[in-house]
Amino acid sequence: MRTLFKHIVVYLLRIEARAVLRKYRPRIIAITGSVGKTSAKDAIYSVVKSGAHARKSEKSFNSEIGLPLTILGCPNGWSNPLRWLQNLFDGFVLIMFTSPYPEWLVLEVGADRPGDISSLSSWLEVDIAVITRLPEVPVHVEFFDSPEAVIQEKAALIDTIKPGGTLILFGDDERTKNLEKRLPAPDARIITFGFAEGNDVRAQHVSFMREEGEESWPVGIEGHISIEGTSVPLPITGSIGSHAFLPALAAAAVGYSLGKNLQEITEAMHSYEPPAGRMRLVRGIKNTLLIDDTYNASPAATVAALDALTLVAPKGRRIAVIGDMLELGRLSFEEHRKIGRHAAGVVDLLITVGFRARSIAEAALDSGLKDGQILQYEDSQKAGKELEELIKEGDCILLKGSQSTRMEKAVEELMAEPLRASELLVRQDAEWKRK
């Protein structure tokens, strides 16, 4: 009964969303990719909302339900049927009566299964499509025939671009950049962003920001954004890792496509705050630093997080708490082992959480870490509680895992200000807390 109700609600919400788009005709920016969608969406929104009425997908509303909810401006009803009925009523009112509506919609578009994005081309028309990194082994590959099938599903977003629209691509990734060949509209514009020379929008001189002196903890990253020979500095507080600078580049590419100058773009970006659970810096107990990357995990993102950990120079140890990476299907065993081999060259102490993550521990042991440097748990909260006794002043701890491993529970056990968990951590809604 619940499944039938969901299908009916999704069907009706989509009908209402299409009607709203036809009535109000907002301009639409859609973002997809396998790494960095939500951060890019938030950064792009900070640029677009400067001087315009804009709305973005809340949190990670990127599914068959999330997109219509964003278009209608309605919240997630979770398991409350009355809330879903209220959403349908609110959508009906929006259609029947004229109300103030955003000029711009900034939509995150995900692909958990085949058809999730390709089905959008029948009703969604996009002014600007942004595609972030498409790694060799993407998340959600379990439900596709191959990693290439995931890339092709993401690429289906290109089919939604209006004539005269813009395609923005992460130019450092050949898999992403090659999608420019798929663009059917001859009058469409292509803009690339990244770190490498040849990109239209490029980052240079990215480094840590520190509170005071070189011995203090990092508080963010800063770099220069360059467009057409002009370069402007941009600080991003609260997150680290060069890949954490990419959302700013995507946002700058969108601003550039809209005719904004670089000074306008970077000034608008000062309101951007990296989303919770994406390489966020959180102060830990005992004067430690937590790198909270607990929103989700894929092989490419986990490697990038470990690489960022190598750049931190703690007075103590580098510690990684890594949970299962889910939805990898037949690639799961070897991809977990690759993470273990990589972690062995980075960390002083490795904690794994979950059944699949045992392969991480085994590969790290085979690659040189000693038994005493590896701990294994099945529950993230227990791992956090026991790690409280093991960490020492000056340690830097990276925490990462797929959504279902609930690695934010370990962060909450280790953070210096647990009363700020609802402000700083992911999945703090009442529905999530009950799970």
Could you provide a short overview of the structure?
The protein has 435 residues and is of the alpha/beta class. It contains 15 helices and 15 strands.
Give the SSE map:
Elements: H1 2-24, E1 27-32, H2 37-48, E2 54-56, H3 66-72, H4 81-96, E3 104-108, E4 126-131, H5 147-155, E5 161-170, H6 174-177, E6 189-194, E7 201-210, E8 218-227, E9 230-237, H7 246-257, H8 262-269, E10 280-284, E11 288-293, H9 299-311, E12 318-323, H10 332-344, E13 349-353, H11 358-366, E14 374-377, H12 380-390, E15 396-400, H13 408-414, H14 421-424, H15 430-434
Parallel strand pairs: 1-3, 1-4, 2-3, 4-5, 5-6, 6-7, 11-15, 12-13, 12-15, 13-14
Antiparallel strand pairs: 7-8, 8-9, 10-11
Helix pairs in contact: 1-3, 1-4, 2-7, 2-8, 7-8, 9-10, 10-11, 12-13
Description of the structure:
The chain starts with a helix and ends with a helix. It has 2 domains: 2-269, 3-Layer(aba) Sandwich (UDP-N-acetylmuramoyl-L-alanine:D-glutamate ligase), CATH 3.40.1190; 280-434, Mur ligase, C-terminal domain (Protein-Tyrosine Phosphatase, Chain A, Alpha-Beta Complex), CATH 3.90.190. β13 (349-353), α11 (358-366) and β14 (374-377) form a beta-alpha-beta unit. The mean pLDDT is 93. The chain contains 15 helices and 15 strands. 35% of the residues lie in helices and 22% in strands.
Structure characteristics:
2 domains, 22% strand, six-stranded mixed β-sheet, globular, nine-stranded mixed β-sheet, 35% helix, 435 residues, UDP-N-acetylmuramoyl-L-alanine:D-glutamate ligase, Protein-Tyrosine Phosphatase, Chain A, alpha/beta
